Fold Acetoin utilization protein AcuC.
Amino acid sequence: MSRAVRVVWDDALVTYDFGPGHPLAPVRVELTMALAREMGVLDTVETTGCVPATDDEIALVHKRDYIEAVKTVSRDGRPDLRYGLGTEDNPAFAGVHEASALVTGATLAAARAVWDGTAEHAVNVAGGLHHAMPGAASGFCVYNDPAVAIAWLLSHGASRIAYVDVDVHHGDGVQAAFHDDPRVLTISLHESPRTLFPGTGFPHETGAEGTAVNVALPAGCGDAGWLRAFHAVVPPLLRHFRPQVLVTQQGCDSHALDPLAHLMLSLDGQRATYAALHRLAHETAGGRWIALGGGGYELVQVVPRAWTHLIAEAAGCPVDPGTPTPEAWRTYVTERTGEIPPLRMTDGRDPQWRDFSEGYDPADAVDRAVVATRKAVFPFHGLDPMP
């Protein structure tokens, strides 16, 4: 079992809300925490609150004029399209600064706990807003809480931080923040930018000294291909880089049911990824692991189960995938959303994958994606790009 594990939560985190009909509905994190609570997962961790990030903390990544623009929009709810505030993706709403600063503050609380040794692992399922740029909102993200937390760690003495992003969308905002900083290794596995927002994340985007790593997977990729790609790229790089802290963005929109993307992972494949990252945190980062939420737009069937598994994995007490969801939670879901909730903590899959060391198939689109990434970045790290 891992040592002290902290989950950062405040009910006010659901105020990060772009309004009715927006895909990033806060009910998804509300249902996640309710499921984790009903299943007893939160009994195995320390749950703590948080405070909003200060302007100075947010300014570790974001421009001051942008922060002021967000605060102005926050006061009156009127759009400011110069900064991406008031678009279809990022509707303007009164209180947007306070809500965004609280999400960022929750991730900073997780980072502080891990860095000062209060906790070995820390989780913020409301975080992971990885698209926000230094001077603009983007892709449902106003402040980039992962980037702010990484910048805070750097400002407090960290010199090697690894960021692994498994969201179906490219982690473009975090990559942009540290593109030229060799102290930060960013690895993003995502659907090909040829078929999905934000249109970036090609293998040739390698950053400073090969520290920006992008695995662009073909639409339709499922558990076997995804896990093969993950294990072909992530463990070798983390073992070489030896980060002091591992930060992960655990967007679960790679699931087959997600309405905004085209990968075909199961809940069981995603759960296997959480376990792999947990092991790698212990193997390569001295156990220091900050795990964040991210994308995920199947609000009832996927997100609550996925991130309950994440919290349980971080706690070192994985949930048996065959476990039924609690009756009280099912009743709450139906009353809250009108939907029929999932009955078990599994999709009934048993993910199997073939290790890349067993050979490369040039006819396979996933293998071609893996080789493109390894050829682009492995030589920077003294690693052989071919199996």
Remarks:
- The domain at 5-48+107-381 is CATH 3.40.800.20 (Arginase; Chain A).
- Residues 333 and 339 are 7 Å apart (CA to CA).
